[in-house]
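Dear colleague,

Following up on yesterday's call, I've attached the two folding results inline so they're easy to grep. Please treat them as preliminary; we haven't cross-checked anything against experimental data yet. The first protein's sequence and structure tokens come first.
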Amino acid sequence: MMLTLALWLAGLDMDFRPPMADVAHPTDRITTRDATLDPTPRSVAGGPTYAAVTFHPAPAPALIVQPPASWLGHFPGRKNGGLWVVMQNGMPWPVTLIVDVAAGEQHLKTTVGLPPGPPQAFTMPLTATSPRAYGMQVGPPMPYMDGDQSRLVALTTEGAIDTQKITSITFSIPQPGAAQTVLFGKMFLIGDDGGLGGAYKGIVDRFGQFTRATWPEKIDTDAALKKRANAVPKADNATGLDPFGGRTDMPASQASGFFRVQKQGARWWLVTPEGHAFFSLGVNAVNHIDGRTYVEGREFMFTAPPAAGAPFTGTGDSRSDNGSQRDNGMNHGLWWDVYANNIARTLGNDFEAGWRKRTLDRLKAWRFNTLGNWSDPAFAGDKRMAYTVPILIKGDFNTVSTGYDYWGRMPDPFDPRFEKAAQQAVANATKGKADDPWLLGYFADNELAWAGQGPQGRWALAVGSLAQGPQSPAKQAFLAYLKKTHGDAAAFAKAWGVNVTTWDQVAEQNFKAPDPNEPHPAIAADYIAFLKLYAGQYFKTVAQTLKKADPHHLFLGGRLAVRTPEVEEMSAQYTDVTSINTYTDLPEHGFDVAEFKRWDKPVLLTEFHFGSSDRGPFGNGVAAVANEEERGKAYAKFVEAAAASGIVVGTHWFQYVDQPVTGRILDGENAHIGLVGITDIPFEGFTRAVSETNVRVGGGGAGNGGARR
């Protein structure tokens, strides 16, 4: 440790020979709050000395370091730099520390998990940062080994300080239930980036895999990649299914030649073109283009970054004001399609047909029966599995903001230009498909911003509509409803508790609509009515347009994510099946099962997953589990509960392939949520568990377990 420390310090920016505080030799500038500083320094054999600080049970016990005057003004002309501290967890379990660097009233904070074991070289950049600034949603795991030194870097810091005016550094533990001991060594101010460059350096190998970990599916040679990716999945022959995956072991109904939905007894089912009950077991994003990740500006993250013009590279620009990109950095320029590159290593550059065959062979062996949204449209020509088609409505129609607008603002369905755009989108989506029996149905848009964030988010679409000017069709529709409901403006003002005397005042731009409150129940009642009006107009417009263009296939709804009870109700009224994206342990924790039973309408759960962080990508998805083995258990629990609900007619897993370690170009998501890795090698344990569940739920075997790999 001593040698490592000396060598590491020698590599610091020598323009800034750092002043030092030494907790092991405290002065009156080192104090505690609900904590005890052991006055006897502890030494590590052949290494530095430490001071033991015991944090007692209290709301925020703390060690407080007030730097000497020599620290002030330490970074003239520099806006960044970092704090460097040697510390060691004195407990046999991880300890959570909050580090607060203050400059007067300014604060910069981070939360760090200090693992048990050897001393850690902890570094904290003295500027706000997060993995999002580096183009990914989740950063690499900490600590990591830098040679023989364990490094713990604060990847997320919040706040802002003047680094020339640092007045204190506080280390605290949030509400410990028992005494916790941490050993502190020397502290330095350093003139580099606080260790961020090292934390992200060389984290991706030439196969797109994380370099600092191992797992069963990780490979290190082209030969190993080719052998494992091309392995044929072993599967038992499915029995008791029609060609579309419908269950012939159950009573048949009318064969219409197309997929439809029907209630049989107390349960809703999809029905295949041949008239057999069908539970849609689908996978989203079955394509070979979702492995794209930006390289430009991040070349240091890759051990073998591709050059511009290299195969499987291109350029893009994902910058936008949408919530998905608002705080994302390194999000434009050269990208590398890691997944496609790996497929080509196993199948050759002209790989598309071979990849589709290999992929469909796997999915059928794993007993899936549906290609979910965002899948390669070319699969439609293979006639081996039901597929879905999105209707993406784009145009110059008015839009309404609900605040966060993760994928963009809400389309205004009252705008006549929206209806024209819907007609064009439907024409594009249905072209050549109206007579295809393998088409399950159509989705309308994806995860629209039906609500905002926070406790008042339910009303965001109504409030956003009223904030628009009098030219807004949505505003006009809301005003027409309010006038019809309340009559004159004075009655409206009294009902809402607002200070207006004319309707023109309500029609003005930036009208500030109130939150619902107990003295004025009319506000919530009017918001609810308008939200139903808004959602009804949207779904009715799309449904009528779609059924006119293609009367044979199902309208599967709008893939609802952020949503309100009003949009669910209107979807149930106007669509054949309401599609809901939910990331919960059980379906009933993601949507109101009882309401759909009351409406007697079917639901298709079109996105769910369970992720872990033990297979390369740093993120563990929206619904996280502890490890790879738990993913299969969680899948079984969710899908079996969905099938038992009586109203859910299918579940679609998101997604086929893991996301890139450094984040997808769309929004930086980088989670282990796939059936296969970025190398196109299946996760054998997980796919085995999935196969067994799919056989139980979808039929096709007498409990024989389906695919064995």
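Below is the second protein, in the same order (sequence, then structure):
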Amino acid sequence: MTDPVRPAFHGFETIPLREYAERAYLDYSMYVVLDRALPFIGDGLKPVQRRIIYSMSELGLNAGAKPKKSARTIGDVIGKYHPHGDSACYEAMVLMAQPFSYRYPLVEGQGNFGSSDDPKSFAAMRYTESKLTPIAEVLLGELAHGTVDWDPNFDGTLEEPSWMPARLPHLLLNGTTGIAVGMATDVPPHNLNEIVSACIRLLEDPDATTSDLCEHVLGPDYPTFAEIITPRADLIQMYETGLGSVRVRALYEKDGTNIVIHALPYQASPGKIIEQIASQMRAKKLPWLEDLRDESDHANPTRLVLIPRSNRVDIDQLMGHLFATTDLEKSYRVNINVIGVDGRPQVKGLKAFLAEWLLFRTNTVTRRLTHRLDKVERRLHLLEGLLVAFLNLDEVIRIIRSEDEPKPVLMQRFKLSEEQTDYILETRLRQLARLEEMKIRAEQTELASERDKLIATLGSKAKLKKLVKDELLADAKKFGDARRSPLVARGAAQALSETELVPSEPMTVVLSQKGWVRAAKGHEVDAASLSYREGDGVLAAVRSRSTQQVAFLDSTGRAYSTIVHGLPSARGNGEPLTGRFSPAPGASFQALASGESDTRLVLMSSHGYGFVTRFENLTGRQKAGKAMLSLSAGAKVIQPATVTDVGQDRVVVATSAGHLLAFPVSDLPELDKGKGNKLIDIPRAKLGTERVIAVAVVSPGGSLSVQSGARTMTLSWKDLDGYVGSRATRGGLLPRGWQKVDDLSIE
């Protein structure tokens, strides 16, 4: 039987591309999740942070040591444990040294380590020095006590700890952020005393609910002194699920007429906030402010001074607007997604997090005690052999001097173990003086007592729990501090509308014949006397206020609106409305109107049709406008007239043939849009030559001015009785010489 032919091996493996891509992407994803982006629940560190702290401890850079160049530390980190870019590694170390980034910094830096205004403005690592802070002892203190597993480094020449034996839940103390593949983490920092108090509550009462734990953990505690305004119910829900958000607001106080901001939200840049406020001032969207200054210095790290225009400015309302439109109020996402003790990433609520961390801590303490017990028992074993040798010193010396291989003889003669015998043979003679017996027995007694305590602690869950509790309390007493972020339940800030930000001033809006618009201050403005571009002149003007909207009607009957204070000043020629709006090609602007939302207007076409509508129907859509007045072929839009009292006012319509008709406003329908009803009768045969010139609304006791060329005739309310008729009738004919009407106005 012949052997089957085996395919030739060419030094490489052939696999489908789909399988290779899938395997490569999954491997990369798992690497990013487990070895780069997400922290471990036990010590709260990412691998790069863990390696930095371990390298600094190996270099002897503890809190009491003299700092060394940061480049020395980073060189060790990337050369021994973390084969990645030095800039990214250094940035990770700088972050742990910034008191405005870390609630409890792990690294103490000397030199430029950035500022709250620009956290990445730190100096290069060759210019700075660093060492560990005292609280880093919480992570490193038990490292040599058999509490962790050790893994080979990237080239297998050294070993590094798989995690740090943290005595406190560091992840909740300093928080972290990270983006992995398909998941992210955002853990806010907390107060050490509150977290320790919650841990002890959970140790004493494993059935405590998240609400019970929130009696101790009031909320996140950021490095800055800005206040947390998230409602307590939302915070409890956040801790229940491990997901949510926290809203933080700057603190300010009144200094005379000025406003002084002295605490900013976490990671908010003073420079950026000043630019955000200044940009609103330049855009004339913040007229309440006169000036702003940054008076921050070494004594006052945060001091932004806002200067209102007058002492009549509502400061709380102004600050509410700034909270809503700048980084003076920020919202932070919370996503407590961490790698658990089982090595799997999972989003954990507060109780699940603390329960798992306490399990980690209990296991760490158990390993530490077991390691110590092994060392104590080994030492007792050695002392027992040493005492035998001391009591039989002459015989031991004789055997050593006379025997070629004294070790097996000693083991057999005194029933010693190999380890005891090696220890005896390595002991110097001077250590076997007369007083040594007392020292040996004293050490034996002390170690035996310690062994009994260790065995008792390891054999009792209650004693083990008490030990964990006592160590937590000791660390809290040593490193704990007062809360920085006050908790004040407030609603989210709301930005003020443009009309609220602008002072209400009388304005006159002027529209030219060629569609140019401008706004002049005051109501006593003669629009005809303003300067216009060559070939242009006044078309219409309307009285308004700076806080109101103004609407424009084009030749197709569409309405466009904008805020009055946003119009150009009347000192110049204004600007074309086509720059603000997008009318149909060939359309021109023919009328304008302004008022409050509930102001009633009479809209009318030159063919005699119209209706009453509210002013707000003309507003809403700005750029493209909205269909408002339906026009028949050849009809034009007449300048609208404002209604004061629908039940009492009269509508007065004048035509180019000198016909004048007055009738009650109540005879007209109120519509949102459309063609409306006939106001005055214009015979069909005369539609080409006769048209409506103007419409006006006269209130009881008022009078009407009829302009004809350079002359003006005034008709009182009683005079109008002669022209009163039914809607859609022909009306009365004006006196001879006044039949060529140019305009109607109210006095």
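For the second protein, one point worth flagging: The first strand starts at residue 68 and ends at 69.

Best wishes,
A.L.
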